[in-house]
Design brief:
481 residues, 5-stranded mixed β-sheet, 6 helices
Length: 481
C-alpha cells in the first residue's frame, strides 16, 4: 500500500520540513496548497536559519530569532542564504537596487542606521547650508529631515547600540561656533511617520568619531580624544602620541579597551575612569601603539562566532607606506592576537609612550593577509568598510587621463586612450565567510564601474549585503550583493 504526503498529519509534515535544506523546502511547498501553508511555519524557518545560516557563518541580523515573525524570519533567512551563495561563488555579482538624485546639494556622508528593529539610510548634504535626511533602504525615499537652520555639518556618526535612545551624533557649525547635537528617532503622531528630534547639545569643538550607547568619542586633529557620556556628562581624555597631520579616522570600544585610529597612528587604551567636568579630568596614555605610514583609510570590525568564547577583532588598513605619491595602495588585514587586557596587564604603567619610529613588541595585532590595488588618480572617496565576517568594500580611483598630457599640435600617430572610471571593489579576507579553496587568502570578488558622477562617500551593511554610495552632485546609489 502506497502512502502519500497528504495522508500524513500536519505535525509529521512539519517535522519533515524541518529536516530539509532551504532549496528542498522551497521545492516541496510547490506540491500543494496544504504543503505551501505548512512550509511557512515559524519552527521550520527557525531550524533552517539556525543550521544553514548561523552554523555556516553567513551574515544575519543580530537579535533572537524568536523576536521575528514567521514571514520576517523566512524573508531574512532566504536573503542570507542567497547572500552566502553569492559571496562563496567564484563569480560573485553586484546588483543595482535604486538611484535617486538629491537636489539639496553634494552628499557629504552616508550611513546605514539600524535602530530599534528598523533599518534606514542617513545622509548629510550641503548646498548653501547643510541638511540631514533619513531614507528607507528600498527606494531611497526621504522619510524624515532635520536641519538646525543656517549651519554647516562637520562630521556624523550613528549609534552602534541599536536599542539606545540616541541614534545620531552630528557636529554643527553655526555662527562660527562648534557643537555636537545628539539626535533621536521617534514616531510622529500627527503624520504617523518618523521624526528626527534633538536630545542634547554638547558645546565642544571636537568632531564625533564614534557613538556607542550613551558614550560618544570626540576627537580633535592633534592627539586628543574625549570620551563623553552625553547623559551624565562624565568624561575622560585619551592622548595619542603627537604626530604630523594625525587626523582621526576610527574609534572602537571592544574587549575592555578603546582603539583609536588616526592617519598616522593606531593606539590602544584601557577603558579609563570617567569623571565629571568639575573635577580634574584624567589623561590616559596608550599602552600599545603602532604606525603604518601614510594611512588613506582604516576600518575595525568585531565578530562573534556561534561557538566562540569571546569576540575577535580585525582591522583593515589602506596605506601607501611613507610615500604619499606611490601609485599603489596596500590593504593590510590584521587580527587581534590575544585579549588586549592581558597585554595591558603585562605593560607597566611606568613605561614611556612608544616612539613613533618603532613598533612596540606588545602591539597585539598581527598581519594575516594583504591585497594590492592600483592608485593612479585622485582619491575622492576614502571611505572603507570591513564587515565582521571578513568582507570589505572600497573605491578604487580612476587613473589620471594620459590624453591630457599630450599637446594638440604634436605630430604623432593617434593612440586611442581607453576611458578610466573609478570602481567600487568588494573583497573578501580570511574570516567566517572565506572557506573552500581560497580559505586563508584575500581576494577581490567583484567590482562595479561608476558611469555617473564621482562618488564622495560610501557605507556597507554586511548583514543585508547592501552598499550605499553618495556623489558630489547629489546622486545616491544602492547596490546589493
Amino acid at each position: 500500500m502506497s502512502l502519500s504526503l497528504d495522508a500524513l498529519n500536519d505535525d509529521i509534515l512539519i517535522y519533515i520540513f524541518a529536516a530539509l535544506s532551504i532549496p528542498d523546502i522551497l521545492t516541496l511547498r510547490q506540491v500543494s496548497r496544504r504543503l505551501s501553508l505548512l512550509s511557512r511555519q515559524h519552527s521550520i524557518w527557525y531550524n533552517a536559519c539556525k543550521f544553514e545560516i548561523l552554523q555556516n557563518d553567513i551574515p544575519f541580523p543580530k537579535g533572537p530569532l524568536t523576536s521575528l515573525s514567521a514571514n520576517d524570519l523566512e524573508r531574512q533567512t532566504l536573503r542570507a542564504y542567497n547572500l552566502g551563495i553569492n559571496w562563496r561563488s567564484p563569480t560573485t555579482k553586484l546588483y543595482h537596487v535604486a538611484s535617486v538624485a538629491d537636489k539639496s546639494g553634494a552628499i557629504e556622508e552616508i550611513r546605514f542606521l539600524s535602530h530599534r528593529g528598523q533599518n534606514w539610510i542617513v545622509t548629510t548634504s550641503r548646498g548653501i547650508w547643510s541638511d540631514l535626511y533619513l531614507r528607507d533602504c528600498d527606494a531611497l525615499q526621504v522619510v524624515a529631515q532635520w536641519s538646525p537652520g543656517k549651519a554647516l555639518f562637520n562630521g556624523m556618526v550613528v549609534n552602534t547600540d541599536r536599542d539606545s535612545d540616541a541614534a545620531i551624533a552630528i557636529a554643527v557649525q553655526r555662527d562660527g561656533v562648534m557643537s555636537v547635537e545628539i539626535l533621536s528617532l521617534s514616531h510622529d503622531d500627527q503624520t504617523s511617520g518618523i521624526k528626527v528630534q534633538q536630545m542634547a547639545t554638547l558645546d565642544t569643538p571636537h568632531k564625533p568619531i564614534a557613538l556607542r550607547g550613551d558614550l560618544v568619542a570626540l576627537c580633535n586633529h592633534d592627539s586628543e580624544t574625549l570620551i563623553l557620556n552625553w547623559k551624565t556628562r562624565e568624561q575622560c581624555i585619551l592622548r595619542s602620541p603627537e604626530t604630523w597631520q594625525d587626523k582621526p579616522l576610527h574609534v572602537m570600544f571592544a574587549q575592555g579597551s578603546i582603539f583609536v585610529v588616526r592617519a598616522r597612528s593606531v593606539c590602544i587604551f584601557r577603558e579609563p575612569r570617567m569623571e565629571f567636568p568639575d573635577n580634574e579630568l584624567p589623561i590616559t596614555e596608550p599602552y600599545a601603539f603602532a604606525s603604518y605610514g601614510w594611512v588613506e583609510g582604516v576600518s575595525l570590525s568585531l565578530s562573534t562566532q556561534l561557538h566562540a568564547c569571546q569576540p575577535s577583532l580585525s582591522m583593515l588598513v589602506r596605506t601607501k607606506g611613507d610615500d604619499p605619491w606611490r601609485l599603489e595602495d596596500q590593504f593590510q588585514f590584521l587580527t587581534l592576537k590575544s585579549d588586549p587586557n592581558n597585554v595591558a596587564s603585562s605593560t607597566s604603567d611606568d613605561d614611556d609612550t612608544p616612539s613613533i619610529d618603532s613598533e612596540p613588541p606588545t602591539f597585539p595585532f598581527t598581519h594575516v593577509s594583504s591585497l594590492s590595488s592600483p592608485h593612479q588618480g585622485p582619491l575622492r572617496c576614502s571611505d572603507m568598510v570591513l564587515g565582521p565576517y571578513g568582507t570589505a568594500v572600497w573605491v578604487q580611483p580612476a587613473d589620471w587621463a594620459p590624453a591630457g598630457l599630450i599637446l594638440d599640435n604634436v605630430d604623432m600617430q593617434h593612440a586611442p586612450v581607453p576611458p578610466s572610471r573609478e570602481t567600487l571593489v568588494a573583497a573578501i579576507f580570511p574570516g567566517l565567510l572565506n572557506r573552500g579553496s581560497l580559505a586563508g587568502e584575500a581576494c577581490i570578488k567583484v567590482s562595479f564601474e561608476n558611469t555617473g558622477c564621482a562618488w564622495s562617500c560610501l557605507d556597507y551593511d554586511e548583514e543585508q549585503g547592501l552598499i550605499a554610495l553618495g556623489s558630489n552632485f547629489g546622486e545616491i546609489t544602492m547596490l546589493r550583493l
